[in-house]
């Protein structure tokens, strides 16, 4: 059942190229640049009138939502708020028929996400869910569901569910962008072409397994880790840290790189490994200067960079090189590198990778 892999998590990390292909299949045309979703006619019409979007989820699914905000605001120019379900549901909610609420949940059974969804639905909001489990409560109760087609995810640490949620959000953002004409057909064709190329490039990252395992051997006994990223890779810093915490029990913090000087920089010393996600793109220079700040304080830098980056190769202690793709799509590659690292740390520490202590796959209590 693990198809030759030691753990479900390892199998699921390696299934991501296939899972992505299944998730995007049938949803786009490379010729026209159009994106298709199987939504009811009414919902399609009402999407034209929505003025804001709220994305609500927990844990890793919340991180996917944070990435989705970048896509929707960029492609469709609709303001997006992303919140944690257990926070959102206890606030004085502002919702009406002009609000599109997107619930993201692998299991479709997370209690807080389901409750938040029920509340805004009663207030008249349009509700779409992004779920992996077919027929789950959240899927059934939303006006429309986008399934992620990742296949069953058994490992408690979410991996392929995350990348397929992000792919769904990417396409949905393009769908809205095309509908509102904030995205041209030409631009859409370009992004689709790049998206279709991602599974292949992900295979390349999977082949870095041995290299990343060597890093895990070196640093698995560290007591703390910092993960830094900016822009679309800021949520990946959060996700990389969460993966490490939940399966290897090593304390890790994810931070937007620009916030480092507002506090966490005080933590840096020669014992602290810092993952810096510094792929090329709009914030490359800024993030590269964070690498220098960490090095100036003797921190250990593991930089995730774009292939061929000689500048950071000379500055960081270690580099993980991922293929060159548009910044928006780099998250698929950078997150996979962090998943592989967390997996090897937990495995080398002899921990129960698939069933970490204190955690359940589906959190149906509030
Ligand atoms: O099934 P859901 O996507 O609603 O689950 C949300 C979280 O419980 C889940 O992502 C959790 O954080 C994972 N253990 C992360 O790996």
Automatic annotation (TrEMBL):
Its EC number is 2.6.1.16. It catalyses: D-fructose 6-phosphate + L-glutamine = D-glucosamine 6-phosphate + L-glutamate. GO terms for molecular function: carbohydrate derivative binding; glutamine-fructose-6-phosphate transaminase (isomerizing) activity. Residues 43-182, 215-356 form the SIS domain. The keyword Calcium does not apply. GO terms for cellular component: cytosol. GO terms for biological process: carbohydrate metabolic process; fructose 6-phosphate metabolic process; protein N-linked glycosylation; UDP-N-acetylglucosamine metabolic process. It comes from the Bacteria. It is found in: Cytoplasm. The active site is at residue 361. Keywords: Aminotransferase, Cytoplasm, Glutamine amidotransferase, Repeat, Transferase. Catalyzes the first step in hexosamine metabolism, converting fructose-6P into glucosamine-6P using glutamine as a nitrogen source. Homodimer. This is Glutamine--fructose-6-phosphate aminotransferase [isomerizing].
